[in-house]
Amino acid sequence: MSVLGIETATRVCAAAIASGGKVLAEAAMEERNIHAERLMSLIDEVLARTGTSPQQLDAIAVSIGPGSFTGLRIGLSVAKGLAYATAKPLVAVPTLESLARRAAGSGIVHPLILSLLDARRDEVYCQFFTVAGGIVTGLDEPHDRTLDQVTEEIGSRDVFVTGEASDKLRAFVESARPEIRHSLRFAERPVSLCSGGMVAVTGEELLARGRTDDPSLLEPRYIKEFFFKTRP
Q1: Which residue of 7, 82, 122, 196 lies most exposed, with the fewest beta carbons within 10 A?
Q2: Residue 181 lies in a domain
């Protein structure tokens, strides 16, 4: 089984090919506002490196959110286009779950993971996960919270924090909630970034379970409402 993974939920723009639970090739860039321009070239790169044609793929997996409104729309648009063009299944991969899976695969021993992405101002997108026997399970649904609310949810629990908003929480804890900092461990930066490879691996696993999504109905999971700005 060969799955293309597409990740555009954050500043990371990435594509990867996975097969048999392993990442065969991954190409990524971390820069704002380059997703529309560079995503297809990254996809072409991983296809070329693995000697795979689009028709040889078994599925296309895409990071579905929460995350950047614009990034999510670009990634899903490309994924849908490929799914329609190749008649291959489309698999939506929850972004916060993908982050938790990457953390769990990094050798951590914490049974509780908190995935965080920036939601602007003093808010984050967040979700708690448990890890048991290598299996990552969500404890709640993805939601947006203020940093103060997140620390209330953490309470006295020992938590491994991952995701691009980890530094945002770390700074808040240091200044406003130093009494809980001993309970928190933060992922190293490479682990805390979104990964096209993890999207591909997770997509392959979901596909094996029979999980696919209808391209005509699938929409990004923004969590927050999205409003277009209009000029006065």
Answers
A1: 122
A2: yes
**Token pair of 66 as six digits:** 């929460």
Residue 178 included in any domain? yes
Q: Considering the domain boundaries, does residue 218 fall inside one?
A: no
How many angstroms separate the Cα of 213 from the Cα of each of 68, 80, 90?
21, 10, 6
The total number of structural domains that make up the chain = 2
| Cβ count near 18 (within 10 Å) | 28
Token pair for residue 162?
């991952």
- The reply to whether 103 and 52 lie within a common domain is no
Give per-residue pLDDT as tens, 143-166: 999 999 999 999 999 999 999 999
Question: pTM for this one?
Answer: 0.94
| Contact between 130 and 141 (Cβ < 8 Å) | no
**Is the domain of 87 the same as that of 200?**
yes
Is pLDDT at 76 greater than 80 in this prediction? yes
Residue the block writes with tokens 């006295």 = 156
